[in-house]
Amino acid sequence: MVRIIGYRERENEEGESFFLLELQGGIEMVLSQTTNRYYATAKRAFISSTFDENTCEALIGTEMPGKIIKEECEPYQYIIKETGEEITLAHRWVYLPEGAPEPKREPKTPVEAIEADVSTFSTNGVHELV
After folding, report:
1. Organism's domain of life (predicted)?
2. CB-CB contact of 54 with 61 (8 Å)
3. Gap between the terminal Cα atoms of the chain
């Protein structure tokens, strides 16, 4: 389940405004790589909507079936607000409705792209030449 926790107003290419809904997944415990201690966090994602501002405001707190997943994307620059550090990311967090198939992940390396032809393997434990 995810919960609508807020909304943001944006403008499209034509200058028309629209609203994004801010979604948050459930609490997760993550092990810090620097302190080696666990901390609580939650994944967040934004989805566009056709709602007006009053409707978006009224939807805050609504739960929806689904989850927030990590999706690979083209690398982009991101500035960490707390430190001002600029980093390069190659993923984003997206909402996946319950029952929807997970997007297929493209192989990152040539080794990951290799797929065996299963018809060449024995199914009875005995190798037979055809």
Report:
1. Bacteria
2. no
3. 52
